[in-house]
Amino acid sequence: MPENSALQFVDTNIIVYAYDVSHAEKWNRARSLLEDLWKSGHGCISIQVLQELFVTLTRKIPKPIPVDTATRLIGDLGQWRLHTPGLESILEAVDIQQRNHLSFWDAMIVCSAKSMGCQTIWTEDLNANQVYENVKAVNPFL
Fold it and tell me: Which partner for 30 in 4, 17, 52, 121 could form a disulfide, CB atoms 3.0-4.6 Å apart?
């Protein structure tokens, strides 16, 4: 198992780009990042990410993928380190939201990454290179 300092949380949008071929440049970078995380064993996600991923890939991208393909992908990603938020996480996310002036959903992402001991969140949704709760947001496309 990798050290916690090497653990990296991946937000939904990064995974979506790995399967949405309509954004070629982002598609290449996202796929490369996910491949690296698979090989290293450092990838982390949450139940929230898996839920958002299913809806986005099957309904919201220009060329939605079939439900069975999305289901297999979610099953595969579920083998990563997975945060399953409970009541304590929701309450902590509210505190994170207030301290960092984030949307609740972004605060849940930060909460999950923090709870898992990640030092990095790969995302486009948070301010690049800003540290939230000792977790650095990194935009892989910059």
Answer: 17
Reported confidence tier of residue 22, pLDDT bands at 50, 70, 90: confident
Strand partners, 94: none
Task: Give kind and range of the element (H or E) at residue 30.
Answer: helix 24-40
User: pTM for this structure?
Assistant: 0.93
- pLDDT category at 21 given cuts 50, 70, 90 is confident
Q: What does the alpha-carbon distance between residue 20 and residue 5 come to, in Å, rounded to a whole number?
A: 30
Is CATH 3.40.50.1010 correct for 4-138?
Answer: yes
Identity of residue 20:
D
The three-class DSSP label of residue 78 is coil
> Domain residues of the chain, as ranges?
4-138
